[in-house]
Design a protein that fits this description.
By secondary structure, the protein is α+β, with helices and mostly antiparallel strands. About 50% of the residues lie in helices and about 15% in strands. It has five helices and four strands; from the N terminus they run αβαβαββαα. It has a four-stranded mixed β-sheet, with helices on both faces. Helix 1 packs across helix 3 and helix 2 runs parallel beside helix 4. The longest helix has 13 residues. The chain is globular, with a radius of gyration of 12 Å. It starts with a helix and ends with a helix.
Length: about 100
């Protein structure tokens, strides 16, 4: 498990904006992941994504890493922001754009 946490930590720190999601930005595999991608794209921000469906260890490990039970999960500059509902709520209030520096 420590190996998985280390991989997740490196992924989170690899880019300013990282989205752990089901599928890819072009082909989301769940509505919540799709909505998170739409919000990030509407902020005109570059982000990297990690498909948790391709890695069962990370799919489970990310939930423990963040202490958050659902996917997608957004990280900005290494900080866990939240899941789909929180991302959308922050976006609608203008908070996400500030956090992203948009």
């Amino acid at each position: 498990m420590n190996d998985v946490k280390e991989r997740i930590r490196k992924t989170v720190e690899s880019d300013d904006v990282v989205l752990f999601m089901k599928g890819s930005p072009d082909f989301p595999q769940c509505g919540f992941s799709g909505r998170a991608v739409q919000v990030l794209r509407s902020c005109n921000v570059q982000f990297s994504s990690y498909d948790v469906l391709a890695d069962e260890d990370v799919r489970q490990g990310i939930k423990e890493f963040s202490n958050w039970p659902t996917i997608p999960q957004l990280y900005v500059k290494g900080e866990f922001i939240g899941g789909s509902d929180i991302i959308l709520d922050m976006y609608e209030k203008g908070e996400l754009q500030k956090k992203l520096g948009a």
